[in-house]
Amino acid sequence: MVINTNIGANRTSRLLAESTQKLNGSLSRLASGSKIVEPQDDAAGLAVSTKFNSQITRNDAVQNNLSSALSYSQTQDGFLQKVSKALDRMSELMTLSADATKSTSDKTNYLTEFTDLKNYISDIGTKDFNGVSLFDGTKMNVTKDSDANTWSMNASALNGSDLVSVIASGFVVTSTLATMTTAIEAVSTHRAQIGANIQRLQLTNEQVGILNENLSASVSRIVDVDVAEESTRFAKYNILVQSGTAMLAQANLLPQNALRLLS
Domains of the chain: which residue ranges? Predict the structure, then answer.
């Protein structure tokens, strides 16, 4: 029996400190909902989750870019629908003007409407979307993944060679009706190209969404705390801290037994 060195108290104090540290860690994990409160909790897991979270953030930006490109393409298609409708009416006017029973005044009225529709098509060809031309025929690159790789959407030039002759032509049925039919087919081709753009944009957006979903699941497995498991661990450490505190008090009383030998 010794007085100066209380081995039992020292050992109990060390064990109590360890239990207290683990209890505090369990409290932090339950409070934050994360298994990684400090880097030393899982250094490798922290590195992986940080990389995945960064990719998720970039993918969110990719989806934003894809949504903008989708709106751009849908605007193109909406305008081309109106162009197609105008061309249909223009071809109708040209056919009506071929009627021999129509007077010169009637044909003049047809020409007035034809000219307005022609100017309408020319005006649409100059429209833009947020400062970006809709129909200048320039291919637009769209971000498709978190590495900033891109693909080029099909271009659609409303004022291209396929429509210039219609826009510039006069009201002459014999020479222009065939050109009008060609123009209508050209607009249909443009709409098909834009439809392909829209489909690919939607599929790419869904693909990025699936990737983000699985990346989030991976991050969750690394970072998110299992509340049931951690609660059990918290109860264990809580009991150890309370029992360790009681035992340390008892260990500190042991040297007093030496007084009985001296009395």
Answer: 7-33+225-262, 65-223
